[in-house]
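A further point concerns the way the authors explain their paired sequence and structure data. An entry of this sort, consisting of the sequence and the corresponding backbone structure tokens, reads as follows:
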Amino acid sequence: MFPMIKQVPIPTAGVMLGLVALGNLLAPYSLALQYACGVSSAFLGILLLFKIIFHPSLIKNDMNGNSVFASVSATFFMSIMQLCTYTVSFFPILSEVVWFAAIAGHVLLMIWFTYRYMIHFELRDVYPTYFIAYVGIVVASVTSPAFQQQAVGEYIFWFGFVAYAAIFALVTVRYVSSHAISESSKPLFCIYTAPMSLSLAGYLACVEEKSLLMILIMEICAQGLFLIVLAKMPKLLSLPFYPSYAAFTFPFVITAIAFRQTLRYLQEINGVVPEVLEYIVIAESLIATAIVLYVFTRYMIFFAKQAAAERAIVKSVFKG
């Protein structure tokens, strides 16, 4: 059905995640935009599913041979968790079953990744994608209210938050080390801004007894990391296209989501927040939207080129 299915890279799941999260970010502004993002995300998910079904050996080789691909694959389960919040009002039981299945899949991946890459890890092979493998499961905390599973979400949040502290130290040591970073891996630095914002969004969504001090500290750290990453974006966007462009998407979206949720919480307990903060949320939302659409477009161009190349090969074979 899709000639280029063999060429669909695992990081496509990262764009899938960015799109479905963007839909949730834009939901207060437009239901149509939310579902457009959801459908686009599902389309990428279908491409990946076809590759898993029809070319499992390629997936297996990528997972076993590259720690970046292996850890990034967790974004597929993260995306499924979020897509389930789109369908829960139409298919409540099925959506909840799939949501739990996605959590279970993420846990199994985490266990396998630990055995395959963490027990005898090499510092040069460590990248911010390791956050995805361990902290990414906090998406379950963010989405848990849709299924009235906040208790499950809270347990997962604390696990992810503790894991974040450990992985943050490991990844930071790797980045200040003398190990070189290839050009194709440079976009992965953007992932740095995601785990704190994701943790904050998970905390606000499912923890019943909230600490205002903890929320403020997390938000300040999240915004600080966001500014560091944003400052590097002009140079990163000047790089040639790589599948690692997927790292540009979800981190910016979840940062805007977490900031908006923080302001809503502050409004609940205080009644008002400075108007300038509302403008910052809008600005971050616009940045996230622009980046996700840009990356999605670049991926579509990449897929079109792959499909055209494969059709050209087939035609040359038949002509010969």
